[in-house]
């Protein structure tokens, strides 16, 4: 037997399992001569010898940042020029709250940046502003979102012209800081279960806002503890009737309730405000609890876009049922989820940038009598960070697509588009924030002990981001909404209904993707085939379609004995896998589209490399699913693994350029070891072993 022939060599198909085993034993007994490099080193030498991509960082960052780059740079420059507005490490909760308010006032009144004007008219610019603000201080980004997107957005989206005329300027210039009082102590995700009541009094032409029990106290309300003067309060609208019931519950509506005196900031009669205190993160946001004791507000304070009450107490609405009105109301509030998904990608970019730059500079160990090597040259570090870097790019393009669809929804008010954005935002918010939460810990670990220093931000980023998995919809609940929508689309497909944009691929999936896998294609293992976007996207969608078909069958089976609720609970983990697989399919589709649309050749080549890593890494991580149904043959599975490792190394070769493509300011990505321009520039010239 040729000792230079390795176990990995399968160029001779006649080698049986037994002969491969003999070969393995032979190599143990007769090791390779010292002069021969190991198979791993051969792979690395070949990878290094390959032409390294030349990436035009300016073109890449221009493509990534898009048309709102100027306003983001203006924000960063403003705060960098104001040391008095920069958040110090170790700031106390009370100091942080007051600093956040000063930062927000300075942004609006001194820098003359008015985010509220873009909430409805140009959402893409609004989210670009929040991304830049969040990189300065996450608490400031959330406080800005509470003021303009939640409090202000509820007035614009749920109210009518009279509310806009009365409140717009005060919200815009911060004379009217406000809150968004939806969540209650006993009800968060189940908004229809809210217990706060708004009872109409026809004698005085007022609504009476009441907290009927402790469980109905509004809880975790941003801006409530210190700065809020108004609150949009979500409550059940109760109308008096002349029948035996005496009252009629019209469902959850939104009401503007003043909570503090505009001049003295004293709490108004009937309002009780309590401070929620110190939190795991976001301590610059003054979360509070609100209790209402027979607080009277004018009838005009009902945000009446979807339902109104006349002077004589009669209810009118263009929507016929409580459920339709509720769905329309929540549909208009979906911007919060869009913003969280978008902002979470910003967290991921910052943490990946810090970890990659640190890993390029940090040197530990190496061959005997030779200099130490960069820790990013170790395969384990590459496998931690390179797929994460690829995901950062993938999520960037997916969330930009989400913002685009949301902007279209705000202009067109198309019912189908509203439903599509609702499900898409639920999936992306849940998937991206969950991934980012895990990645923040991985990045901290990848930077060793230096990553534990507070100044390097991993701790604060992790703590501030953690709640992203809960507010604007618990991630597990949101993923169930995605699964429910997929099942509805599946049912509609067989009833001849039309499919919304995001689910168009299901039109073919029940036929193409669920047919018996082609045994020839299942064995194709060339790099060209595996890097073909069609193969990658087909594989993602095949997985989604298999999960959809199987969970639909399970639900039908279990509903006969357990009922619909019991069947859903029995299949819950399966449903969550389905929603995750679908969301991954959408993300990959948008990434492939972004690669195709990139105008610069060098940037397009870099993005293609990153996209391939994203796709094949996901396929390999779930290779068992594909093997179980013979979608991928054993030799193809091995080829996917090898190519994924190769792509991981190639992405590592341009990792410095890729994080530079995010174009994040140095003040945002300060790193554990000095990464000032000279040291970093010198090191980026030496990439490779």
UniProtKB/TrEMBL annotation:
Acyl-CoA oxidase/dehydrogenase middle domain boundaries: 179-295
Keywords of this entry: FAD, Fatty acid metabolism, Flavoprotein, Lipid metabolism, Oxidoreductase, Peroxisome
Annotated localization: Peroxisome
Pfam family for this entry, one: Acyl-CoA_dh_M
Major localization listed first in the record, in broad terms: other
Residues of the Acyl-CoA oxidase C-terminal domain: 532-675
Coiled-coil segments on the chain, per record: none
Domain Acyl-CoA oxidase C-alpha1: 331-486
Cofactor: FAD
Keyword hit for Flavoprotein: yes
PANTHER family given in the database record: ACYL-COENZYME A OXIDASE, ELECTRON TRANSPORT OXIDOREDUCTASE
Family assignment from sequence similarity: Belongs to the acyl-CoA oxidase family.
Name assigned to this protein: Acyl-coenzyme A oxidase
Species: Gossypium arboreum (Tree cotton)
């Amino acid at each position: 037997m040729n000792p230079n022939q390795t176990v990995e060599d399968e160029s001779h198909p006649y080698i049986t399992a037994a002969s491969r085993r003999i070969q393995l034993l032979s190599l143990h007994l007769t090791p390779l001569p010292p002069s021969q490099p190991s198979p791993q080193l051969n792979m690395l030498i070949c990878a290094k010898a390959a032409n390294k991509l030349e990436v035009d960082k300016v073109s890449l960052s221009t493509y990534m940042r898009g048309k709102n780059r100027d306003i983001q740079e203006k924000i960063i420059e403003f705060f960098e020029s104001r040391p008095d507005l920069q958040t110090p490490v170790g700031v106390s909760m009370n100091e942080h709250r007051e600093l956040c308010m000063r930062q927000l006032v300075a942004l609006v009144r001194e820098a003359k940046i008015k985010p509220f004007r873009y909430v409805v008219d140009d959402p893409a610019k609004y989210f670009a502003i929040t991304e830049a603000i969040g990189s300065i201080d996450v608490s400031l980004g959330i406080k800005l979102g509470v003021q303009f997107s939640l409090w202000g957005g509820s007035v614009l989206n749920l109210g009518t012209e009279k509310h806009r005329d009365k409140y717009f300027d005060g919200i815009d210039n911060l004379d009217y800081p406000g809150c968004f009082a939806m969540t209650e102590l006993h009800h968060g995700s189940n908004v229809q279960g809210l217990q706060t009541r708004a009872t109409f009094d026809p004698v005085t032409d007022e609504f009476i806002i009441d907290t009927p029990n402790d469980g109905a106290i509004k809880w975790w309300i941003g801006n409530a503890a210190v700065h809020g003067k108004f609150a949009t309060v979500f409550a059940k609208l109760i109308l008096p009737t002349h029948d035996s019931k005496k009252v009629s519950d019209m469902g959850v509506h939104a009401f503007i309730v003043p909570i503090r005196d505009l001049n003295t900031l004293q709490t108004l009669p009937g309002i009780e405000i309590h401070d929620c205190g110190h939190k795991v993160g976001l301590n610059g946001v003054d979360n509070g609890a609100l209790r209402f004791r027979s607080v009277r507000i004018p009838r005009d304070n009902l945000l009446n876009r979807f339902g109104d009450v006349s002077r004589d107490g009669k209810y009118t609405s263009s929507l016929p049922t409580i459920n339709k009105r509720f769905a329309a109301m929540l549909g208009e509030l979906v911007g919060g989820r869009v913003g969280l998904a978008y902002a979470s990608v910003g967290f991921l970019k910052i943490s990946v940038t810090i970890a990659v730059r640190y890993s390029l500079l940090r040197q530990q160990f190496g061959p005997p009598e030779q200099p130490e090597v960069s820790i990013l040259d170790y395969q384990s570090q590459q496998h931690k960070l390179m797929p994460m870097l690829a995901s950062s790019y993938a999520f960037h393009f997916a969330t930009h697509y989400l913002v685009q669809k949301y902007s279209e929804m705000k202009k067109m008010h198309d019912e189908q588009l509203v439903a599509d954005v609702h499900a898409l935002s639920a999936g992306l918010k849940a998937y991206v924030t969950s991934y980012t939460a895990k990645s923040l810990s991985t990045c901290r670990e990848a930077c060793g002990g230096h990553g534990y220093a507070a100044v390097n931000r991993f701790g604060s980023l992790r703590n501030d981001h953690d709640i992203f998995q809960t507010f604007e919809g618990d991630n597990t609940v949101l993923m169930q909404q995605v699964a429910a929508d997929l099942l509805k689309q599946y049912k509609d497909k067989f009833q001849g209904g039309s499919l919304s944009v995001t689910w168009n691929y299901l039109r073919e999936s029940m036929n193409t993707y669920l047919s018996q896998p082609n045994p020839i294609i299942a064995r194709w293992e060339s790099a060209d085939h595996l890097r073909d976007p069609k193969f990658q996207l087909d594989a993602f969608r095949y997985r989604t379609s298999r999960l959809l078909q199987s969970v639909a069958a399970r639900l039908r089976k279990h509903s006969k004995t357990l009922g619909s609720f019991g069947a859903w609970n029995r299949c819950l983990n399966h449903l969550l896998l389905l929603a995750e697989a679908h969301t991954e399919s959408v993300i990959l589709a948008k990434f492939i589209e972004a690669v195709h649309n990139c105008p610069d050749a060098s940037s397009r080549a870099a993005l293609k490399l990153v996209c391939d890593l994203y796709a094949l890494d996901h396929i390999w991580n779930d290779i068992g699913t594909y093997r179980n149904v013979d979608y991928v043959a054993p030799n193809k599975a091995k080829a996917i693994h090898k190519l994924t490792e190769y792509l991981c190394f190639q992405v590592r070769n341009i990792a410095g350029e890729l994080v530079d493509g995010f174009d994040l300011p140095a003040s945002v990505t300060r790193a554990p070891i000095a990464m000032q321009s000279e040291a970093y520039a010198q090191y980026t010239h030496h990439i490779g072993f």
